[in-house]
Design brief:
The chain is mainly α. It has helices at residues 3-28, 36-45, 50-65, 70-93. It has one domain (3-93). Helix 1 runs parallel beside helix 4 (70-93).
Length: 95
């Protein structure tokens, strides 16, 4: 495995954890989850909603590990960054 692929895989996992943390900040401020699947998980599982959230991150990382196309891996990692960036924008607008 190349060091670029390893860095992208670690980045994918870190971005998933950042999504979880920034979502918790938003929830602590009384706002709700925008993703209907995760909103359902939060209502159904309560505090344990982190299992499907982090589970999805692990599954995506494992699927990317099987790919040999660095461009596609980088594209997926960039796509995974968008919820985190959105969460940061929402957090910065909370007063």
């Amino acid at each position: 495995m190349s060091w670029v692929k390893a860095l992208l895989l670690v980045s994918c996992f870190v971005v998933g954890c950042a999504d979880f943390l920034t979502t918790n900040v938003i929830l602590d401020h009384g706002l709700s989850e925008a993703n209907p699947i995760m909103a359902f998980a939060q209502k159904s599982l309560g505090e344990w909603w982190l299992i499907p959230k982090l589970g999805a991150t692990i599954i995506v990382t494992l699927l990317l590990w099987r790919s040999n196309n660095l461009y596609n891996i980088a594209l997926v990692v960039a796509f995974c960054c968008t919820p985190v960036l959105n969460n940061i924008v929402v957090i910065s607008g909370i007063s």
